[in-house]
Design goal:
With 418 residues, this protein is of the alpha+beta class. It is built from 17 helices and seven strands. The protein has two domains: 74 residues, no CATH class; 299 residues, Beta-lactamase, CATH 3.40.710.10. It has a five-stranded antiparallel sheet. Strands 3-4 form a two-stranded antiparallel ribbon. The chain binds glutamine.
C-alpha cells in the first residue's frame, strides 16, 4: 500500500506553499461526509493537526498515525466511498429538508400525556451511509424517544437469541391493516407482526425471558449503544412514567395475549409490558438513529467499528417486515409510492433504510391520522421521487431519477449502455 501521506498530498489540493494543513484536511473530510471525530481517521487527523511544518513523506511516519483505518482512507482518497459526490447529495437532501420543513400539518401524539409537551416545530434529518458518511440537518442534537422505532431492534434481538422459527411461533408475518394499538390478534391468536404494539410486546417477552428485568433492559440498551455508539443511552423516565400510567390499551392487548396463550408459558405480563414501555422511552437523536439505521442498511455490521451487531439473516427478516408493516396501516401505500423499508414512531421519528447504501432518519413530532410523522412521510416521498431508491427502480430502463451511488461520469457511460 502506498504511503498514506503521499497519497493525501497527491489527491488534495494543497495550498500555494504545498502544505497540507489541518483546515484543508478537514475541508476534504467535510466534503466527503466524514466527521472529524470519526475514529477511522482520528490518529491521522491528530498527526496532521500537530504537524507544524511540511509533512515529511517518510514511511517511518506511519507509526505516528497507527490506528488509522488505512484501507478506508485510501478509498476515501480514491473517491470510492458509496456516495462519491457526497456534497452534491447533501445539497439535494438540504433542499428536500427545507421544502418539507414548511409543512406544519398534523398534531403531536397526545395519548401519552408527556408527548403533548413536545414543541411540534422541531425538525431534524440525519443520514449515515454504509461507509459512515454523515450529514445532519436541523435539530439533530435534540433527544426524543424511540417509541415504535424500537420495535425492529427488539425484533432483531429476539431473532438473534431465539431463532426465526421460535419467534414466529409467537408472532405472525402479515400486515394488520389496523391501527398500531388496536386490541386485536390474528386468526391464530397471535400478534399480526412484530412492528405493531402486540408484536412489540411479544418480542420483549422473547428477549432473555429467564433473566431479571433489569438485565433484560441492559441487554437491549447495550445493543442500542453499539448501534448508535452513544454512551450512556438511557430511557426518559418522565415519558416512561407517563406512558406506564396510561398504557390501558397495551395492558388490554397483553391480557388478551395471555388469555389466548399467545405468550410462552411463564411469561410475566407486568414485566413484559414494563420492558416494552422502557424500550419505547429510550432517548436518542436523529444522528444516533441514523447510525443505527446504517447498521441495518449494512447487513448488521457497524460502518465505523466493523463490528457484527446482527447477522445478515436477522437483518433480512427485519427489512422484510419493515417493507410491509413499518408504517402501520399506511404501509401498503408507502411501499407502493416510496418503496423503502421504514419504521415510524409516535414521537415523530421515521427511520428509512436503503439496503447497501444508507440509513436516513427524520424527526418531526406532528403526526398524521395513521400515527406517522407528517414531515417524515413527505420527506420519504420527495426522496424517492428524486433518487432511484425505490426497491424496484432498478427495473426501470433509463430511470430518470438520480443515482448517487456512482460518479456522474460513470453514470453517463451507464446511460448509453442502457
Ligand atoms: N409506546 C407507544 C405505544 O405503545 C409506541 C407506539 C408507536 O410509536 N406507534 O403506544
Amino acid at each position: 500500500m502506498k504511503n498514506l501521506l503521499e497519497t493525501i498530498h497527491n489527491r488534495l489540493n494543497l495550498n500555494q506553499n504545498n502544505l497540507l494543513t489541518i483546515d484543508l484536511f478537514d475541508e476534504f473530510l467535510k466534503e466527503n461526509g466524514i466527521a472529524i471525530s470519526d475514529t477511522r481517521i482520528k490518529p491521522l487527523r491528530t498527526y496532521i493537526k500537530n504537524a507544524t511544518e511540511f509533512i515529511s513523506l517518510q514511511p517511518k511516519m506511519d507509526a505516528l498515525y497507527t490506528g488509522t483505518n488505512e484501507q478506508f482512507v485510501q478509498r476515501l482518497l480514491e473517491k470510492q466511498l458509496i456516495i462519491p459526490e457526497f456534497s452534491f447529495f447533501r445539497d439535494h437532501i438540504t433542499e428536500i429538508s427545507k421544502e418539507v420543513q414548511s409543512n406544519c400539518n398534523g398534531k403531536v401524539a397526545d395519548y401519552i400525556p408527556e408527548l403533548k409537551n413536545i414543541d411540534p416545530n422541531q425538525f431534524a434529518v440525519s443520514i449515515c451511509t454504509v461507509d459512515g458518511q454523515v450529514f445532519n440537518f436541523g435539530d439533530h442534537e435534540t433527544d426524543f424517544c424511540l417509541q415504535s422505532t424500537a420495535k425492529p431492534i427488539n425484533y432483531a434481538i429476539a431473532l438473534e437469541s431465539q431463532g426465526e422459527t421460535y419467534v414466529h411461533k409467537h408472532i405472525g408475518r402479515e400486515p394488520s391493516g389496523k391501527r398500531f394499538n388496536e386490541v386485536t390478534l390474528n386468526d391464530q391468536g397471535l400478534p399480526h407482526n412484530p412492528l405493531i404494539n402486540a408484536g412489540g410486546m411479544m418480542c420483549c417477552a422473547l428477549i432473555e425471558p429467564e433473566s431479571s428485568s433489569s438485565l433484560r433492559l441492559d441487554t437491549i440498551t447495550k445493543v442500542w449503544q453499539q448501534l448508535t455508539r452513544r454512551k450512556p443511552l438511557v430511557y426518559d423516565s418522565a415519558v416512561y412514567k407517563s406512558e406506564k400510567l396510561t398504557a390501558h390499551r397495551n395492558y388490554a392487548l397483553a391480557h388478551l395475549m395471555k388469555e389466548v396463550e399467545a405468550f410462552p408459558t411463564d411469561t410475566d405480563l407486568e414485566e413484559t409490558v414494563d420492558l416494552y414501555i422502557k424500550t419505547c422511552s429510550l432517548k436518542v437523536n436523529t444522528a444516533n438513529l441514523a447510525s443505527a439505521a446504517a447498521v441495518i442498511a449494512n447487513g448488521g455490521i457497524c460502518p465505523f467499528t466493523h463490528k457484527h451487531i446482527f447477522s445478515n439473516t436477522t437483518i433480512k427478516d427485519c427489512l422484510t417486515m419493515m417493507s410491509f408493516c413499518g408504517m402501520y396501516d399506511f404501509s401498503g401505500e408507502f411501499a407502493f409510492k416510496v418503496g423503502i423499508p421504514a419504521k415510524s414512531g409516535v414521537s415523530g421519528a421515521v427511520m428509512l433504510i436503503i439496503p447497501n447504501l444508507m440509513g436516513i432518519t427524520i424527526w418531526s413530532p406532528n403526526l398524521d391520522s395513521f400515527g406517522n410523522s407528517v414531515r417524515g412521510v413527505e420527506f420519504a416521498h420527495k426522496l424517492t421521487e428524486r433518487f432511484n431508491f425505490h426497491n424496484f427502480d432498478s427495473l426501470i430502463g433509463n430511470c430518470p431519477k438520480i443515482n448517487p451511488r456512482i460518479r456522474k461520469k460513470v453514470s453517463k457511460v451507464k446511460e448509453t449502455i442502457d
